[in-house]
């Protein structure tokens, strides 16, 4: 007869606190860790973890699974990379609260900001909710592999409270502010983890307009966040517009935190060139925390950027006027047409026409690199399209064009837009090691045709820990960043550590085999929509609430994931 439901035997345990590694067994029963030690009793099921590391499940606080968590049960890529809890509703975009008359508007916002095809949302969402509490109930009723928590998003909230005036970005009046404050309190009490917004100028709707929250008055943000104060809980998440200057933009966080007394978290990255302005932001954040506020910066452990390719949303020729002639052809026919000398000459000479801001990023030749298998997210600068062109005495367009033809149109590019200062991840390394920074920004569930960063946990462990590149990070500290530190930043204090009584979310990882594969295109969304997926090798097991959801890098079909309603006590 077994003593426990599951025993993980003989692993090297990184408990999530950043403390010393230990070797031993972990026993699980009833979805909880019930014993940690040597030579524990027999489990109904056992996992041999000798020569493996055992960690808490990873927590990604910045995703966009708002739709995928409704129409799907497997929150991949995140769950394929050791993530057992995700937070969605980031950047102020989502699907509740929402009246029936506003469905198309929210789809337009989400399609533009997060690159989710409108037809996928139109077919995949039942829209059997109106209020945010009703949306949470819909999530609660679903089955999925990992846990989800959700912010109240600003764009739907603003339009719900203000109607067309909110969509047109008119200034909220006193009645509007009171309504949004009351709706925020209601959402937090129902289980929202907090409130999220965006001020980023390149966040555009699908038709090229500014999103409803762009340039919203700081007084509006204060009023909404006071709704969290009224409820006694909640984290404020914001994407600032660094393009207008950090001195001005960071002050928004300072004002709101002082006004409402709630924690805040925001996106931070370094530029690839120019002075390291991010260091001043770290100093400003430290000053806020020293003054009694609680602010955390979210940092991507590898370059922030896009993946470009002929089968994806952006590529180096997508806005060339002549591309429109072949844009709708199957891939093989596109490539055949590109071999025609006249079309080649046109595409190599034409400038980009007007389009979504993300498209122009696919021609940032100085910071555009080939992305092969296995993918290198810290490539030497000599591999950039610009550097290769200088070495060969041709144009970057020619280098990119040749790559596409040589790979039959399947070649991918990494457009490294930030966090790759001087062609190194040293800036990301420094930010990650700051006491008030956490790894995040996986963006799982969004940017289906342009970004696949939900694998950052695997990258961090392989690149910084195992391979000791760009400064290196000790294993215990890296696991702490991915688990307890990330969870605490948004009030999820019930997870992220391995101790007796803790929620049994764990990973068993073979660091020697840990491999990140090149992103691939899969067609598993509603309406046959395509998305980027990225697989990993080396996850012997991922466990959620005591159930093994993945074994040897494949789903087991278990669906123990649940909605996490609001902040959680330790």
From TrEMBL:
- GO cellular component terms, semicolon-separated: cytosol
Note whether Hydrolase occurs among the keywords. yes
Domain named Amidohydrolase is located at 45-549
Which keywords does UniProt give here? Hydrolase
- A GO molecular-function descriptor: hydrolase activity, acting on carbon-nitrogen (but not peptide) bonds, in cyclic amides
Q: Which Gene3D superfamilies match?
A: Metal-dependent hydrolases (3.20.20.140), Urease, subunit C, domain 1 (2.30.40.10)
Looking up InterPro entries in the UniProt record yields: Amidohydro_3, Metal-dep_hydrolase_composite, Metal_Hydrolase, Metallo-dep_Hydrolases_sf
Record keyword Hydrolase present: yes
Residue ranges annotated as coiled coil are: none
Which protein, by its recorded name, is this? Amidohydrolase family protein
* Natural source organism: Sphingorhabdus contaminans
The lineage is: Bacteria, Pseudomonadati, Pseudomonadota, Alphaproteobacteria, Sphingomonadales
């Amino acid at each position: 007869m077994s003593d426990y439901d599951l025993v993980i035997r003989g692993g090297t345990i990184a408990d999530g606190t950043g403390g010393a590694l230990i070797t031993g067994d972990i026993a699980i029963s009833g979805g909880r860790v019930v014993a940690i030690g040597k030579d524990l009793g027999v489990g109904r099921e056992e996992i041999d973890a000798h020569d493996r590391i055992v960690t808490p499940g990873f927590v990604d606080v910045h995703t966009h699974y708002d739709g995928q968590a409704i129409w799907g049960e497997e929150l991949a890529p995140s769950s394929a990379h050791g993530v057992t809890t995700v937070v969605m509703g980031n950047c102020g975009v989502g699907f509740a609260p929402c009246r029936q008359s506003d469905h198309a508007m929210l789809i337009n916002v989400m399609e533009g900001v997060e690159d989710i095809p409108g037809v996928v949302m139109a077919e995949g969402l039942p829209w059997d909710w109106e209020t945010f509490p009703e949306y949470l109930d819909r999530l609660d009723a679903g089955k999925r592999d990992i846990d989800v928590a959700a912010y109240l998003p600003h764009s739907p909230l603003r339009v719900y409270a203000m109607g067309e005036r909110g969509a047109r970005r008119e200034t909220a009046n006193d009645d509007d502010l009171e309504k949004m404050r009351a709706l925020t309190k209601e959402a937090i009490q129902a289980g929202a983890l907090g409130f999220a917004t965006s001020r980023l100028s390149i966040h555009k709707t699908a038709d090229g307009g500014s999103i409803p929250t762009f340039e919203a008055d700081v007084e509006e943000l204060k009023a909404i966040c006071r709704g969290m104060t009224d409820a006694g809980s909640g984290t404020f998440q914001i994407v600032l517009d660094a393009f207008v200057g950090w001195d001005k933009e960071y002050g928004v966080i300072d004002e709101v935190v002082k006004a409402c007394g709630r924690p805040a978290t925001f996106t931070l990255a370094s530029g690839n060139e120019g002075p390291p302005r991010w260091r001043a932001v770290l100093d400003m954040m430290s000053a806020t925390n020293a003054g009694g506020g609680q602010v955390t910066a979210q940092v991507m452990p590898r370059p922030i950027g896009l993946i470009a390719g002929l089968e994806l949303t952006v590529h180096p020729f997508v806005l060339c006027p002549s591309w429109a002639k072949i844009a709708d052809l199957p891939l093989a026919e596109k490539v055949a047409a590109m071999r025609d000398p006249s079309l080649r000459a046109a595409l190599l000479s034409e400038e980009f026409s007007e389009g979504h801001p993300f498209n122009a990023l696919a021609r940032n030749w100085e910071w555009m690199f080939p992305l092969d298998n296995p993918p290198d997210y810290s490539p030497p600068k000599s591999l950039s399209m610009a550097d290769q062109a200088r070495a060969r005495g041709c144009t970057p367009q020619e280098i990119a064009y040749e790559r596409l033809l040589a790979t039959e149109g399947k070649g991918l590019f990494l457009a490294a837009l930030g966090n790759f200062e001087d062609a190194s991840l040293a800036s990301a390394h420094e930010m990650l090691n700051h006491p008030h920074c956490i790894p995040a920004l996986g963006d799982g569930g969004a940017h289906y045709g342009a970004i696949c960063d939900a694998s950052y946990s695997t990258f961090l462990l392989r690149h910084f820990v195992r391979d000791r590149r760009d400064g290196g990070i000790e294993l215990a500290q890296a696991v702490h960043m991915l688990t307890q530190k990330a969870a605490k930043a948004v009030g999820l204090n019930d997870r992220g550590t391995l101790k007796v009584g803790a929620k049994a979310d764990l990973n068993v990882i073979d660091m020697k085999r840990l491999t990140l594969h090149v992103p691939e295109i899969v067609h598993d969304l509603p309406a046959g929509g395509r998305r980027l997926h990225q697989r990993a090798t080396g996850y012997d097991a991922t466990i959620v609430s005591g159930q093994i959801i993945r074994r040897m890098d494949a789903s087991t079909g278990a669906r123990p994931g649940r909605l996490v309603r609001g902040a959680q006590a330790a």
